[in-house]
Amino acid sequence: MLVKLGSTINLELEDAEKGKHRLRSKILDYHNSKFYIDYPISEESDRQKFFLEGTEFQVSFIGKDEAVYSFKTEVTGRVKKNIPMLVLRDPGKENYSRIQRREYVRIDTSIDLALYSEEEKFQPFTTITNDISGGGMSATLPKNHKLHKNDVITAWLSLPYRSGEIQYLSVKAQVIRIRLEREWPRASFKFRNVDEGVREKIIRFTFEKQHEESEKGLH
């Protein structure tokens, strides 16, 4: 199985009246070519949704090989073990579509950001990102910054999701390079030793931004 138990998956439901509806869930179990997932949570309302047998979804997830996969499936039932679960059919690996490796999913976006020195080389300061991916980011720096290549910092990110939810995440990052752009310094960072749960939240954010841009006809 390409996906790990406990992994977050994204579901997309086509509604004839309201258009596409996006949800998220977790894979709790796998047996006899069936995924057992937590009841999906709507990205719009942040509430759990209930679906009848036969409801069709487009599912995407991050595989063990760190690639993104997508497939079509439908609800085949509901079960209740320790918690209620929805059952989805696994169409088989031959019906999965490989989208792209997650380290290349980089989105141009401005996110509120606070940077702290690991060794107290500078006073903490706030800024915004220029872009972000599951593997790193770039950010604008003040002109009097004291960052240098290879410095390791702690970054606090504020990720606003479509549902209105805001996630505040802390990650360690290493300065890869610093350059001038339009008279302002810009630093590129690579995330280091990131908890996979935190990385998945960042990737979820980038996926949402990709969908928004697609809807606006930017991609």
Q: pLDDT under 50 segments (min length 5)? A: none
Q: Which CATH class of the largest domain is shown?
A: Mainly Beta
What is the number of helical segments per DSSP (H or I, 4+ residues)?
1
Strand line-up across the major sheet: 1-2-3-7-6-5
Strand proportion, as a percent range, falls in: over 45%
Oligomerization? single chain
The gyration radius over C-alpha positions equals: 20 Å
The ordered H/E elements are EEEEEEEEEEEEEEEH
Return the average pLDDT rounded to an integer.
85
Protein name: C-di-GMP-binding flagellar brake protein YcgR, contains PilZNR and PilZ domains
Domain Type III secretion system flagellar brake protein YcgR PilZN: 4-91
InterPro entries: PilZ_domain (IPR009875), Split_barrel_FMN-bd (IPR012349), T3SS_YcgR_PilZN (IPR009926)
Keywords: Bacterial flagellum, c-di-GMP, Cell projection, Cilium, Flagellum, Nucleotide-binding
What does this structure look like?
The chain has 219 residues and is mainly beta. The chain has two domains: 95 residues, Roll (Pnp Oxidase, Chain A), CATH 2.30.110.10; 109 residues, predicted glycosyltransferase like domains (Thrombin, subunit H), CATH 2.40.10.220. The chain is built from one helix and 15 strands, in the order βββββββββββββββα. The strands form two sheets. It has a six-stranded antiparallel barrel. A six-stranded antiparallel beta barrel has the order 10-11-12-15-14-13. The two termini are 31 Å apart.
